Structures are given as structure tokens and as C-alpha cells.
Amino acid sequence: MTQTLTTKVLIIGAGTGGYVAGIRCGQLGLDTVLVDGGDGLGGTCLNVGCIPSKAIIHAASKFETVSKAAAGGTLGITASKPAIDLAQTVAWKDGIVKKLNNGVAALLKKSRVKVIKGWANFTDAKTCTVKTAEGDIVISAEHVILATGSEPVELPFLKFGGDVISSTEALSLSAVPNKLVVVGGGYIGLELGIAFRKLGAEVAIVEMADRLLPLYDKALTDPVQKWLEKHGVELHLGARAGSFEQGQLNITTKDGAALKLKADKVLVTVGRRPRTQGWGLENMGVVMAGPFVKIDDRCATSMKNVWAVGDLTGEPMLAHKGSAQGEVVAEIIAGHDRRFDPITIAAVCFTEPEIVSAGLGPLDVEGRDDVITAVFPLAAIGRALAIEAGEDGGFVRVLASKSDHRLLGIQAVGQHVAEMSNSFAQMLEMGAVLEDVAGVIHVHPTLGEAFHEASLRALGHAIHI
Fold first, then answer.
1. Which among 41, 20, 331, 284 is positioned nearest to 144, based on CA atoms?
2. What is the pTM of this model?
3. Are 36 and 114 in contact (CB under 8 A)?
4. Which of 209, 309, 325, 349 is least crowded, fewest Cβ atoms below 10 Å from its Cβ?
5. Which pLDDT belongs to residue 38?
6. pLDDT tens-digit readout, 333-369
7. In sequence order, which residues have a C-beta less than 8 Å from that of residue 406 and are 6 or more positions away?
8. What burial class does residue 191 get, using C-beta atoms within 10 Å of its C-beta: 0-12 exposed, 13-18 middle, 19+ buried?
9. Measured between alpha carbons, how far is 62 from 439 in angstroms, rounded to an integer?
10. Chain Cα centroid distance, residue 39
């Protein structure tokens, strides 16, 4: 028998945008139903993306450290030859995911949000039928928040299945492949390719652009490329992937030559697309902006009281953007005057070394003569040298207006620089000027001192260079 439900707020999708919207709605006293039809509470990020990938990256780095100790020693430390049981590592990763899943479930319960596990299909903008294990539930709502997230892009000649895998399958392999070919030199492919190289796999990367991470400037990506080359990762830049047959990936190189790359697994990471199919979006009457749902600065769609957050709404497709949008929408529904209008949304690549970018970069201000740019190397920071993070070409860079010294952008590349990303975003969001950063007494010894010194250098009086 079909059940019926009526609610104030209906949220479709339990990822970082959806579940955060649900918790905030509950805190504000709004009757809320959350439909989880995808990867589980926490969505892609928690279950098959951000969190599990960083766990595997962490394990890979530990394995690399022990391997160095076994290969002649490091920092005076020696060890026996290490071994990796990837199945056990994956089980540890799954334990972290489960713990976080349970945490999200507890927070939703605390906020009195009703969670329904099943697949929703809309018949109009405010009504959907959810297919659950116990039967169909028809839900009608005054407000609908769309938070369906995104999914990996599949190439027509490299369809997922068997030994052609997406990042989801890569994070659950039971053994390290002997030979891994990564198609796509963006951050997802590089993060996982680097992790598997640390775990002992032979890795090749095929990227259609002429360089890795083409959305970032060359100064930021050069240290990553140098790490790859130093560690024997085979790079095919300006190359196109073809079919995968009998354990070999066909590629066409930049100069038109045909090559066959041996591979136990082919990891396809050519991007992600918004999840717009299979749940009745076409019946909701919302205006699209290309492949994305079009929204305004309130996250409102063209249909009254239908809202959209997260990857469904366009770039940057980042978890923290979706969470912030989810909070904004919940508060608007509760009657607050809110807008989603951030100064910046910082991004991090957890490569080796890590990359952080917030605000404008050199490519954005190319040709302008009203911008100050200053760079400070991590090699001049004591903390960086003490933790082996100062010898890979890492740096912090600031861009500021010449006229009033207002910060326009901040970037960094180097080991552990991801932890500075929030400081970068905070300064930009608060409208800080170079003198603000220079006037903050930065703790010694920390990597954050490089941000301080870069700002001092932009003002013409860095201390340690």
C-alpha cells in the first residue's frame, strides 16, 4: 500500500549539501524529510570521495615512509621491507566512513529530520514518489531542496566495468594493481595515481591537455610534475586515450603516434557531471544553465520554493560549497534574509605536494599592472625543513591591489599546505589588506609563517629572504 507524506521541507540527496540543509532546517524548527537515494548519508564526499580518498592517501604516505626506511634508511630510521595488505587498508577506510555515517545519522535524528532511504521520482515540482524497500511513499512539500550531487563522467569508448574503473572502485580495490593507467590529469586522477605509486604500483597518466592540472598556473603544478617524474610515473601529456583491449590501453600521443600501454586497471577520471537523470527533474519546470540547474544568489530555481545546492548548481563542484549553500537555503525558508555570495571558495588538491588556491591567481590578472605579486619559498621556513617539506619547490604566493593593498588571491604548493586553506579564505572573505596579515603575529615554527613572510615581501620588507 502506498503511503503519503506532507512536509514543510523535502530534501533530495543526503550529501554534504543535503544533510547540512536538513540539520539546519531541523535546528530552525522546520518539518523536514530527507530522501537518501545515492551513496548513503554524507553522499559522494563521505562515502566514495573526499574522506575515503584522503584516508587511502594517508595510508599510502605511511607506506612510502616505511619503504624509504627499508631502502637504506631515512632520518636515521631503518626498517625491514614493508608489505601492504590493501584489503585491510580498505577495511580501515570503511570503518572511518561507517563512523562518520553514524555521526551524520545521529545529527539528523537530533534535529528531528525524517530520513527515507529510497529513490525519488518527481511528477511535478513539489511531489515525488520514493521507492523504498518497504514500498512506495508519495511525498508533497511546500519547499523542495534539490541536492542530488554529481557522478563520474564515463567515456563512450571506456565504459566503467571490469578493469575500467572510476574513483569509486579505485577506493575499494582488494590489491594494489601492478600497472595502473590513469586517464585524466586533474586532481582526482593525480591524487589517486600518486597514492597508488606510493603503494608500489607502476603508474602512467594520460592527459589530453599539454600539462597536468590545466586549471592551475604552471608554477603551482611544476612541483607536482617533478614529484611524478622523480618517482617514475609515466606521463603522456597532449595525448588521447582510446579503447582498452586485452590488458592494453590504446593511446594517441601528442605527435600522432599510436601506443599501447599495459594496464591491470584503467582509472578514468576525466571529470564529474551533475546528477540530473532518473529522478524526474524534467517534470519540475526549472530552468537549466547548460548541464546545471540555474539558481540565483539565494539558491532559488525558476520554480517558486524549489531550491538547489551543491554540484547540481555548477562549478566549483566542492563539498564545502554545497554545505554553505544548504545552510543559506534552510535559513531563507525559515524567514531569514540570506544570500549566497562568497568572496572566495578555496580549493585544495591533495597531490604530492599539495596545492591550495583561493581568490584570483596569476592567470586571472595576466596583463594587469595594478596588482602586486609576492612569493615566499617554504625552503626558508624552519618548520618546513624540520618536517621534510622544504625541498620540493613549495611556496606561498599572495596577490594584492597596488592601490590599497587589498588581498585578491592566495595560493600555495607544498607538503601539508592544505591546512592553511581556511586562513587564506578567511583573510579574503574579511577583505584583509597586506598590512592585516603582516600585523598578525604568526606562531613559530609553523608553515603559516610563509603566508606572513609573503605578505611582508609584497610590502617590500620580508625578514627571512
1. 284
2. 0.96
3. no
4. 209
5. 77
6. 999 999 999 999 999 999 999 999 999 999 999 999 9
7. 400, 431, 432, 433
8. buried
9. 37
10. 16
Active site residues: 444
Which pLDDT tens digit goes with each residue over 193-247?
Answer: 999 999 999 999 999 999 999 999 999 999 999 999 999 999 999 999 999 999 9
Distance in Å from the first CA to the final CA of the chain: 74
CA atoms within 13 A on the CB side of 67: 12
* Residue 448 grid coordinates: 603559516
Element (H, E) at 117: strand 114-117
Grid cell digits, residue 395: 611556496
And the C-alpha cell for 324? 554553505
Decide if 284 contacts 303 (C-beta within 8 A). Answer: yes
Least Cα distance to 82 among 93, 92, 68, 95 occurs for: 68
**3-state class of 60 per DSSP?**
helix
- For residues 116 and 34, give the distance between their C-alpha atoms in angstroms, rounded to a whole number: 6
SS3 211: coil
Q: Give 3-state DSSP helix, strand, coil % of the chain, rounded to 5.
A: 35, 30, 40
* Cross-strand pairs, 182: 205, 267
Decide: 252 and 242 in contact? Cβ < 8 Å: yes
Q: How far is CA 206 from CA 233, 234, 304, 315, in A?
A: 11, 9, 45, 24
235 - beta bridge partners?
Answer: 205
Nearest-Å Rg of the Cα atoms of the chain is 24
Q: Which three cell numbers stand for residue 108?
A: 539528523
Determine contact, residues 59/171, Cβ cutoff 8 Å.
no
pLDDT of residue 403: 98
- How far is C-alpha 428 from the geometric centre of its chain's CA atoms? 20
pLDDT exceeds cutoff 80 at 1: no
Cα→Cα distances 405→337, 364, 408, 422, 436, Å: 31, 17, 9, 20, 10
319: pLDDT strictly greater than 80: yes
- How high is the mean pLDDT of the chain? 97
**CB neighbours (10 Å) of residue 423?**
18
With 0-12 / 13-18 / 19 or more C-beta atoms within 10 angstroms meaning exposed / middle / buried, residue 194 is buried
For cell 589530453, the residue is: 208
